[in-house]
Amino acid sequence: MRQLSIHKTLLILLFILGGLPLLSQDIHFSQFNASPMNLNPALSGFFTGKHRFALNNKSQWSSITTPYQTFSASYDTRLLKKKRRRKDMIGAGITFYRDVAGDSDFGTMQASLSVSYIKGLNNFNNHFLTLGVQAGGAQRNLNFNKLSFDNQFNGEQYDPELYHGENLSAENFSYFDLSLGVHWFYQIKSRLNFSAGIAAFHLNKPSQSHLDNHDITLNPRYLVHGKAQIDVSGKIDLVPGFQLMRQGEYSEYLLGSMINFITNDDPNFYTSINFGLYMRYNDAAIAVLGMDYKRFNFGISYDINFSDLQNASDLRGGFEFSLIYILGERSSRKVVRKMYCPIF
By C-alpha distance, which of 279, 221, 267 is closest to 248? Predict the structure, then answer.
């Protein structure tokens, strides 16, 4: 009899036990700061410039099974800015992502709209609190034809034409998704700032069953994140960051730092090389290499798996790529020195 793959066996067991909602397939990018619209809805419109485009792609577990693939694309901007000294603003954006896992093409496709209110907390344009909301529609899909079952063994060999005997009624289903976020930012000087945020995803607990069981829902996911930029010398910045997540009984803790080497600090030709290391607790070490050049930010990272799965993964996790492109008015060096906040 043909052996079931590890992924297929686990997936079938999850169906039988009703555990499908535990496979939330939420986006878990290692370069979380390079995917702001997926990190926190409150980050919509909060950046230097007028228009921001972001692309993220991750491939993992190719050493174990068919690689898990996650792709995300987003765009955000600012719609309004109040004409007064304390400049409150409205941000907005759109996000699309597609995630496909393993041999069965178990996947999620989602499109979301985000709106944020960026509130100035003082008259110096360097201290802000942002509230954001994100709403969208998603579709879950699964290809039953790529799964094999015990009932399809005809006594001599595997026969895909035989009925599998399982009550798998819905290959695809759609649902509405709602998320909220809060973000705080304080800039002390041009290369010294601190930020933190809290976000809650899937607040409406959408139904997730391929078995038409509406009691199976997607648990809310709660996230806390933080970041700092610290000028340690004339050309070097330390950029530590963290991300903490909790969903149902599962948690993820990610902590690390980047080091930026500035090779050109002219605002019109800004260039820097950055590298760093992050640790995902009890799971992986993440090596990151990136570059800023004018309006572009590019990053590449690799997850080195050291969890209990390493016996199968052979320490191999996966590659991740990020690209951010920003359009907007350029400021002179004189103005940049006077205006600390990066969103003006």
Answer: 221
The closest of 165, 142, 209, 147 to 12, measured between CA atoms, is: 147
Given a contact cutoff of 8 angstroms between Cβ atoms, the answer to whether 66 and 8 are in contact is no
CA 264 to CA 319: how far, in whole Å? 28
Split into its structural domains, the chain has a count of 1
Cβ(110)–Cβ(173) under 8 Å? no
Residue type, 4: L
CATH of the domain at 175: 2.40.160.40
Tokens 């990151």 belong to which residue?
288
Q: Is residue 344 part of a domain?
A: no
Identify the band that residue 165 occupies on the pLDDT scale cut at 50, 70 and 90. Answer: confident
- 198-203 contacts at long range (C-beta below 8 A, 24 or more positions apart): 198/40, 198/222, 198/223, 198/224, 199/39, 199/40, 199/41, 199/42, 199/223, 199/225, 201/26, 201/177, 202/24, 202/177, 202/178, 203/178, 203/179
In a domain, residue 343? The reply is: no
Mean pLDDT of 314-333: 76
Domain housing 25: 6-338
Of the pLDDT bands very low, low, confident and very high (cuts 50, 70, 90), residue 332 is very low
Question: Which of helix, strand or coil describes residue 336?
Answer: helix
Question: What are the distances in angstroms from CA 296 to CA 20, 148, 329?
Answer: 39, 46, 14
